[in-house]
Amino acid sequence: MSLTNLELINLSENNINGQIPGWIQYLPNLFYIALANNLLSGGLPVELTRLPALASHQVLDQVKYNKFELPMFGVRLHASNWQYNCLASFRPMLDLSYNNLSGDIPVEIGNMKSIQDLVLSNNYFSGTIPSSISNLTNLESLELSHNLLSGEIPTSLTSLNFLSSFSVAYNNLQGSVPTGRQFDTFSNQCYEGNPRLCGPPMQKSCTERSDPSSPPSGHKKGLDTEMIFGPLLGFCFGFGIILTCQLHCMLSERTILPRWIHRYCIWA
Prior knowledge:
Blueprint: E1 8-10, E2 17-18, E3 32-34, E4 39-42, H1 52-55, H2 57-64, E5 67-74, E6 82-86, E7 93-95, E8 100-104, E9 117-119, E10 124-127, E11 141-143, E12 148-151, E13 165-167, E14 172-176, E15 196-198, H3 217-252, H4 259-267
Parallel strand pairs: 1-3, 2-4, 3-7, 4-8, 7-9, 8-10, 9-11, 10-12, 11-13, 12-14, 14-15
Antiparallel strand pairs: 5-6
Helix pairs in contact: 3-4
């Protein structure tokens, strides 16, 4: 790949399909990647986490202070035009939202130590949230909403002191919502759509949780009692019937009994 001086990619809101190419890792100065609102599929390639400018503060510092030969203008919805005169105006970012990406979020995501915005919302990512995200100490925005993520929210994320925007809404997460530091400032909307999450700011208390796959201990004991006494009662009942028939057979030789009882006893 010859674009070794490429520093920003913004191809959002197109109809780009296919998978994210692994050769991106060979772009040493690339620190801003915006591919939102496309038709990308496949997984999040591990190669993407090896971008030098997103993995090393030293490399990023050398890149960001380059100035543009001409100013760059950006237009935001319902906002005035923004003018950018140097790369320092752009925060290190990976935005893959609104695509068809799937699979696990690789644990190697924790190598992108320079990144400030990680936006993976509105895809089909599954598996758990990697605790290695807590290594991204410069992270300010983490958007994972509208995916298929499961498991618990790693409590280690509370160590991200600069995190000001966070959402895991509409996944399959469970367990307690982390508390402390900046997590005490996030609202209920950041977690909604996960009925198995509990604790503040959710309305559901963690003491009210019940896991259908793990019945209470009393319920297990009840099942064990039925399994023990059920066969025992059946054995006693069957033994009683056999004993009764044998008794009838013994009496039939001395008393006059209906012929059908006598035949039954002989057969038994």
